[in-house]
Amino acid sequence: RYDGRGFGLSDRDVTDFSLDARVRDVEAVVDALGAERFALYALSAGGPIGVAYAVRHPGRVSRLVLAATWASTDTEQSRMIRDLFEFAGANWETPAARASLVEFLAPEASDVERRVLMHFLQVSGDGPQFLGFIRSRLDIDVTEQARRIRIPTLVVASDADTTVRLPTSRRLASLIPGARFEIIEGAGHRGAAFNDPRVMRLVSDFLAEDAGGTQ
To answer: pLDDT band at 76, cuts 50/70/90?
Structure first.
């Protein structure tokens, strides 16, 4: 795992959040690790980057997992997300801004989890980074790249994910030839992405099918 462009311990003072820039970040991490062939687990906003990387480097990715993610964002949800993040980015230092994001990303969270997530958002990034991130996220479309994937792929989604709706994930799976599509019933966005034990079992079993992959 690595901190995404503009967040965490990665450089904060960045303005290029394009798909190409994010793929270059993955390339830099992989090269630094010296990984020749490996399984790639791309969740949430990392999904399109995982798709693009796998197409660009088909010989390096043995298996691809896409969890709680999309190829493109539908128009109706794009407007809602843009309005929400514009508000949050412009008012980043206020608890209300971060609370609105937590409600969007994890409506199922308990009161304690909400406070933890609000603090996590506060320390992991700044308003301008979140605005740059979300604006570019809504413009990214990897529909054509997804159709070109030729490696074993697992797409995981949830019927209770209000951040990435089930039809959006289902469409992603339909674009990838031979992709396996699994629905985690009752899981929220975090659960479908990485936090539900059922997802971990699915991913472990999927990766174990390829003994030659680096997991």
So the answer is: low
User: Which pLDDT score, from 0 to 100, does residue 171 have?
Assistant: 96
Q: Which two tokens stand for residue 125?
A: 């990034």
pLDDT bracket for residue 211 (50, 70, 90): low
What letter does residue 210 receive in the DSSP assignment? -
Residues 103, 108: Cα–Cα separation, whole Å: 8
Compute the distance between CA of residue 119 and CA of residue 57 in angstroms, rounded to an integer.
36
- Identify the pLDDT of residue 75: 63
**DSSP state letter for 44:** G
Q: Which residue has tokens 């992709």?
A: 179
Q: What percent of the chain has a predicted confidence (pLDDT) above 90?
A: 60
Compute the distance between CA of residue 25 and CA of residue 30 in angstroms, rounded to an integer.
9
Q: Which tokens sit at 167?
A: 């039809």
Residue type at position 3 = D
Cα–Cα distance list, 213 to 29, 58, 177 (Å):
18, 13, 20
- Tokens for 88? 């949050």
Q: At residue 210, what is the residue type?
A: D
CA 133 to chain centre: 12
- Please tell me the distance from the alpha carbon of residue 145 to that of residue 156, in angstroms, as a whole number: 18
Which position has the token pair 């674009």?
A: 175
Is the Cβ–Cβ distance between 49 and 26 less than 8 Å? Answer: yes
Residues 202 and 156: beta-carbon distance below 8 Å:
yes
Q: How far apart are CA 176 and CA 1, in angstroms?
A: 24
pLDDT in tens, 146-163: 999 999 999 999 999 988
